[in-house]
Amino acid sequence: MYTAKPENKFTFGLWTVSNVGRDPFGEPTRKPITPVEAVHMMAEVGAYGVNFHDNDLIPINATTGERNRIIADFKKALNDTGLVVPMATTNLFSDPAFRDGAFTSNDPKVRAYALQKTMNAIDLGVELGAKIYVFWGGREGVETDSGKSALSAGKWFRDSLNYLTEYVLDQGYDLKFALEPKPNEPRGDIYLPTVGAMLGFIETLDHPEMVGLNPEVAHDTMAGLNFMHAVAQAWDAGKLFHIDLNDQSPGRYDQDFRFGAYNIKNAFFLVKLLEDVGYDGPRHFDAHAYRSSNYDDVKAFAAGCIRTYLILKEKAAQFNADPEIQALLAEITADDGSMAPFQGKYSPENAAALRAVEFNRQALGERGQPYERLDQLVVELLLGAR
Predict the structure, then answer these.
(1) Given 53, 242, 284, 288, which residue is catalytic?
(2) At what angle do helices 264-277 and 295-321 cross, to 10 degrees?
(3) Do 193 and 215 contact (CB within 8 A), yes or no?
(4) C-alpha to C-alpha distance for 214 and 13, rounded to whole angstroms
(5) Is the dihedral of CA 23, 24, 29, 35 positive or negative?
(6) What's 15's DSSP letter?
């Protein structure tokens, strides 16, 4: 019943199913697999596409011959499986050259190298079909504000994105950028940490129409924020270009759990929002299997991400069709039409009429809302009791 279809646009990154189980306290628990093997695994669970950082596919020290062979093998795997590449990105955080940032490094040579590396990676992404290019600034931040000017860093980041949008336009690429906010880790404080901060920053760019957002569940949740609210804000601004789905416990390190593995209610409301508004972009699972898993369990992890989304999509449809739930929503949002003259745009006449209205403040304060009943119905729906 919960089998992926191409229109679902479920995608995984090479770095997700290929994760070898290393963490800061332990060595890898799984042997590396090749990008070709990862593509075939994703195809077996019903994925629509595969995304990658440049060095997920091509090692940073690869020769030209090695690079050409890897790309040829990867293209063949895509052709054999029917998978596409909707999104690509650049690794600007792993190499020691980026120890103090990439676009926001104090060293102008590092900033220039980051631009060069990204242009090359953009070329690769476009060659393989990518339409979205994600920027996650994992090293764009500080541990101490004594070492870097936040104003200078913001200018350098802006200059870099302006440079790269001009590069895309000059090349005639059909490509948009998606910025991925995160508050902390691996840096103590990462610049532009939230969806709201990114939205404000985008409007300062030379080509804001080319730049949107790639919000991630774990990044907002680890800071104690409500991710669905951030996604709604991005959608309302017309900037939800891409989305990273996983799960996370608030206040912890970046866990990247299987989608829906930790807080199923939050996952439900996120899926409901995406389905209700008609989001048509990739649904990208930026998650990792448990370190205790072998590759058969990694495959089950990937299939589980897809199944959970589809189950919650079904639950969202049930919510929208449930007569008791909809009756409560109608009660909660009841409108007798008396305030219609005061809604919409301001005018002096409208304001004068509103000032003349006598409100019964006591009655307004006495009206309760049946949110407990409604929330219990949601819980019962998710538990399969409705």
Answers:
(1) 53
(2) 60
(3) no
(4) 14
(5) positive
(6) H
CA distance 266 to 168: 37
Put the strands of the sheet holding 211-213 in their side by side order: 211-213, 176-180, 132-136, 87-89, 49-53, 10-13, 283-285, 243-245
Residues 301, 259 contacting (CB under 8 angstroms)? no
Q: What is the DSSP letter of 342?
A: G
Measured from the Cβ of residue 291, the count of other Cβ atoms closer than 10 Å reads 15
CB of 247 closer than 8 Å to CB of 260: yes
Return mean pLDDT, the chain: 97
CA atoms within 13 Å, Cβ hemisphere of 45: 28
Torsion of CA 54, 11, 33, 90, to 10 degrees: 10
Tell me the one-letter amino acid at 212: G
Confidence band, pLDDT 50/70/90 cuts, at residue 345: very high
Q: What is the DSSP letter of 6?
A: G
Q: Round to whole Å and give the CA distance between 213 and 241.
A: 6
Q: What is the DSSP string of 195-254?
A: HHHHHHHHTTSS-GGGEEE--BHHHHHTTT--HHHHHHHHHHTT-B--EEE-B--TTSS-
Cα Rg of the chain, angstroms = 23
* 53 belongs to the catalytic site: yes
Task: Tell me, rounded to whole angstroms, the distance of Cα 51 from its chain centroid.
Answer: 13
State the pTM of this model: 0.97
**Planar angle of CA 236, 242, 248, nearest 5 degrees:** 95
Amino acid at 303: A
Q: How far apart are CA 70 and CA 64, in angstroms?
A: 10
pLDDT in tens, 214-257: 999 999 999 999 999 999 999 999 999 999 999 999 999 999 99
Which candidate, 122, 153, 113, places its Cα nearest to that of 137?
Answer: 153
Of 23, 54, 56, 375, catalytic:
56
- What SS3 class is residue 336? coil
- Which residues lie below 8 Å from residue 130, measured CB to CB, with a gap of 6+? 51, 85, 86, 87, 88, 175
Domains and CATH numbers, the chain: 6-321 (3.20.20.150), 323-382 (no CATH)
Looking at residue 1, its pLDDT comes to: 82
